[in-house]
């Protein structure tokens, strides 16, 4: 009974706040075992450290340990083409909401700490000051707990640079991030990316079975 009341309160609060119930659905209904099966094609790129996107060239992001709700929202953005990466659009095109939730659950349960990147220390110091406006959503060091926003701490610097450039140019269409990135210079983008890449966090690039 207490559990039922608590769940009702949580669900009601989410509705009153105007938030999506995606996070609740992921937590309650997602099947990480099925997500592992669905993710075998994902692991070809995301399952080994340091693999690079061919053009534009940047390191393919670590998604092990990423928030499940954010993974789902990213997959939906690729499916509806508000993110313009051809391979990811193709991967997401036939996924159902349930499939996405299962994939998110599989990657989110992975453990392991990302190793901070070697970055330009002066850039990272400048980026720490610039990133103050990011803390509300992503946490001070980028290892935030808000599940609808991605963890950034320890993520590849080149990927963070590309993501911010895409938000700035409109290649990624997100109201919050587009507003944040619109007036950033390339120097500011690089500095912020250096800062977050240099932080310790819970992301990982798990070793795929195909590489074992």
Topology, pairings included?
Layout: H1 2-17, H2 22-29, H3 32-38, H4 40-46, E1 52-54, E2 57-59, H5 68-79, H6 86-92, H7 97-108, H8 121-130, H9 135-138, H10 157-169, H11 175-181, H12 186-197
Antiparallel strand pairs: 1-2
Helix pairs in contact: 2-7, 3-7, 5-6, 5-7, 8-12, 10-11, 10-12
Main features:
single chain, 212 residues, mainly alpha, Cytochrome Bc1 Complex, Chain D, domain 2, two-stranded antiparallel ribbon, 54% helix, disordered N terminus
Describe the structure.
Helix content is 54%, strand content 3%. The protein has helices at residues 2-17, 22-29, 32-38, 40-46, 68-79, 86-92, 97-108, 121-130, 135-138, 157-169, 175-181, 186-197; strands spanning 52-54, 57-59. It has a two-stranded antiparallel sheet with strand order 1-2. A hairpin with a 2-residue loop joins strand 1 (52-54) and strand 2. The chain is globular and about 45 Å long.
